[in-house]
Design brief:
mainly alpha; 12 helices; single chain; 3 helical TM bundles of succinate and fumarate reductases
Length: 231
């Protein structure tokens, strides 16, 4: 087992599993955030009984809060292994690729060649994002304070068009990263034949598109709400 985890395949496997964990989290996170769009359609945006408020209350439950360190560990493992695999690949191949890919289609993919760049963009804006939401909600509760109103945080964050545009760039980077990472994960565990490769690529793009479109709609909806363009 130890030899497997330290092997090249083992490292890619850990990278894929940690990535799958983060995809599930992002799908859940995007769904709860999308409740704010549904609230706008229902006329309950900003209400205490709004779906988004209830979703945030659910995420604040102790059993969910206990998962924060696990989530943080998943991010750290994914980032560290991604950087390590990229460094190994640069050394081994004398060029820039995230890690070796078995197919020409993967090698020709812009996302495959720039996964590290995409990862850096995602990581950089992630810290920006944490200061807007996590620090004012879960971290505030950790330190004995009171979490901010989630609707107010959405409006304060996305009320500025430039901040909204920065987030949209971030979401596009997430889409490109997820689109490649999803099928690459299945390739790592052996589902790389001609039939499954085509299917997982399509499924990966669909999953990435759903997640990112939900996030973008949340940002645009909050911008419209904050500027009184919808009510």
């Amino acid at each position: 087992m130890a030899n497997f985890l330290t092997s090249s395949i083992g490292k890619k496997f850990i990278q894929g599993i940690s990535g799958a964990f983060l995809v599930i989290f992002m799908l859940l996170h995007a769904t709860i955030n999308f409740f704010s769009v549904i609230d706008s359609l229902k006329g309950t945006y900003g209400a205490d009984d709004g779906l988004f408020k209830m979703g945030c209350d659910f995420m604040a439950l102790p059993i969910v809060t206990m998962m924060v360190p696990v989530l943080a560990l998943g991010f750290i493992v994914h980032i560290c292994y991604g950087c390590f695999l990229t460094w190994q690949n640069i050394r081994a191949r004398g060029g820039y690729n995230r890690y070796e890919v078995a197919s020409k289609a993967a090698a020709d993919s812009w996302s495959a060649k720039n996964m590290l760049v995409l990862g850096i963009v995602i990581l950089g804006i992630l810290f920006f994002h944490l200061t807007h939401f996590w620090a004012k909600m879960q971290l505030a509760e950790f330190t004995g304070g009171e979490a901010e109103n989630p609707y107010l945080l959405l409006n304060l964050t996305f009320g500025n068009i430039w901040v909204t545009l920065i987030y949209i760039v971030w979401f596009i980077a997430v889409f490109l990263h997820l689109g490649h990472g999803f099928w690459s994960m299945f390739q790592t565990v052996g589902w790389s034949n001609s039939i499954w490769m085509k299917r997982t690529k399509v499924i990966g793009l669909i999953v990435a598109a759903i997640i990112v479109l939900m996030f973008i709609s949340v940002a645009c909806n909050a911008y419209l709400q904050a500027n009184g363009l919808i009510g």
